[in-house]
Write a structure and sequence with these properties.
The protein is an alpha+beta fold and about 300 residues long. Helices cover about 15% and strands about 30% of the residues. It is built from four helices and 19 strands. The strands form four sheets. It has a seven-stranded mixed barrel. It has a five-stranded antiparallel β-sheet with strand order 7-4-1-10-9, with no helix packed on it.
Amino acid sequence: MIEVVEAGRWTTIQDLGRPGLERYGIPSGGAADWFAAAVANRIVGNAQDAALLECTAAGPTLRFDADAIVALTGGHSPRVPTWQVLRSARGSSLTVGAIAPGLRTYIAVRGGIDVPLVLGSRSFCQRGTFGGGFGRPLKVGDELATTGMVERESAAEPWPSSHRLPLRGPWEVRVIGGPQQEAFAADALRRLTATACRVTPQIDRMGLRLETPGLRLRPQEILTVPMTAGAIQVTPSGGLIVLHVDHQSTGGYPVIATVINADLPLLAQARPGDTVRFRIVDQAEAARAHRRLTGWLDRQSS
């Protein structure tokens, strides 16, 4: 068993999520920084879909009642080495503490966190308050078990620094044109990509609100339509909301562009005050960017 001694700011159980259920109003969910989560599982020898802990802003203190192999990736913890195997002896504790740079740290335990599957996933869904074992973030006194299921030996070396994503802004985030571009003036996409947007404190797993100094796109109204992670909605006042993994499944604000899957992890690590610039790419470049990250994972697991 793993005992939660301190819960951290917002620590939840996540895996790859629930893709394919958005038509039923259920977001895909899963780890906000999917790449860092996948790396953590690779390091300890888990399957890529094993459940692990996602820690936001400040991480927990965990006590282990048996020897354990652990890895932390994503946002930096000054108290604990990251991107490498850690061995926790029986009775020992691991304290993550404040996270910076970056916003979210992932803790994988060899064997994967064992909580019940809900709609095919162990992930906590913030929007629906279900899953993740408890239907909520972790709190003091919670106890976690592992499945004991592994795929390979744990990594012998730290994850290469050349195969990690940046944890500090300013961020360049690649986008493809959105489905409602006709709701905007002809130069709206060019103006969007020419504007430095600032991340506000309004951040959670459902999305990020951005300040856009001097940018007022003034979209036309549209009917409610399906939404997906990465959609950049434009409000009637001209502000921007970037949807993330626990987003609503429909929305009435037009979408001017969509963040590519390979760059969603960057937004998962963005902190209030960080600067985001968008760059338009085509679908071919979006596919290459995704293959680059999955290629890193495949090479390190071979």
